[in-house]
Amino acid sequence: MPDHNPPGFFIPPIYGQHIPARPMSPPTTDTEAPVDEFDDADSAFGGDSFIGDETKTLSSFITNYRYEYGRRYHAYRDGAYWGPNDEIANEQQDLAHHMYLLTLDGQLHLAPIENPQEILDVGTGTGIWAIDMADEYPSSRVTGVDLSPIQPPFVPPNCLFEIDDMTMPWTYSANQFDFIHIREMFGSIPDWDEFFRQCWRSLKPGGYIEVVEHSVEPISDDDTVGPDHFYTEWGKTVVQSGKVSGKTFTIWRESAERLRRLGFEDVVEHTYKWPMNGWSPDRKLHEIGRWNQYRLHDGVEGFMLRLLTSTLQWPYEQAQAFLAQMRANLRDYRTHAYLPGTVSYGRKPRNAPPEAEAAW
After folding, report:
1. Which one of 154, 186, 310, 311 counts the least CB within 10 Å of its CB?
2. What's the rounded mean pLDDT across residues 282-290?
């Protein structure tokens, strides 16, 4: 290991060193899952997960993934989400879940929910939050929704997963859920107000919505991240990709106000910091920072490759050079950079009017 690594910190091998001339096609031997991969009685994907009589055809289509530059992306609603769904990306999601548990002192949510019976996890990813919630609230039914069937097949009996694009009109009943959880959906929603309206409609009166997001622009409190620092360039680049795609990456600082504007009550916003590495002398922030360094070192390719090459139309070689700069900066403990974030939650009024009579 290079001796500029922080003591005791393992920097794993860097992925993506091979530069193909064009996006790679998947290997012919092991890329497509069997048609009935999720047609198993023990699977978390129940009969309602794939709607209609064409389950096998739809399952085959959903698992016919797209491959770009050696990374695997979802097939259903291709391009709706910027990140890959391969094993490397899934590990980053689970690392982020661990970081959120550290951030929230072991809590899965901050909204003051009591005995919820119906819980919805939007953009569930690997399903790790939904599974933990199902264990914590065994009398509830937890539904996780994502574009990709990357969740484990064996889960608590009160947890199920569905494949859907939650930016499209929802098919859930009005007043169905006690709690709706949204985490790290930045860069994925074209119209957040419309998205929150659908959440409102599907929440029971008195039900809670919680939005957990963080910035993509590293900053500092001591000017070690200045206007000419690489982190500033990085943040501007990610934000610009959101402007080009029409899907903002700045929802972390807008969530609470949007919820208030749409009529949610008792809206609360908690802030947090994720250091870019272990520079902080604070024990908790130091630990979170070390995990964040590990997550980003492996994860920057998945986070950014499609945004850079497809959305911003960068050449592959330029994109990889940009990612290498980020990995190098992650090793610099002299820069006291962090990602600010928010946990925002609000309650649908108990006397909420029917949807047609709502203020919006």
Report:
1. 154
2. 98
d(CA 125, CA 161): 10
85-129 pLDDT, tens digit each = 889 888 999 999 999 999 999 999 999 999 999 999 999 999 999
Rounded Cα gap, residues 279 and 6, in angstroms: 9
- Alpha-carbon distance 166 to 307, whole Å? 20
Between the alpha carbon of residue 259 and those of residues 69, 139, 350, the distances in Å are 39, 28, 16
The sign of the CA dihedral 222, 227, 230, 236 is: positive
Q: Supply the pTM of this predicted model.
A: 0.83
Task: Tell me what pLDDT residue 69 has.
Answer: 82
Question: Tell me, what amino acid is at 190?
Answer: P
* Token duo for residue 23: 């996006």
Give residue 206's region: left, alpha or beta (phi > 0; psi -120 to 50): left
| Sheet with strand 141-146: strands edge to edge | 159-163, 141-146, 118-122, 177-183, 203-214, 338-347, 265-275
H or E, element range at 232: helix 230-245
The DSSP H or E segment spanning 305 is: helix 283-306
Which of the following CATH numbers is that of domain 55-357: 3.40.1390.20, 1.20.1250.20, 3.40.50.150, 3.90.1700.10?
Answer: 3.40.50.150
Delimit the domains of the chain by residue range.
Answer: 55-357
Integer Cα distance of 288 and 280 in angstroms: 9
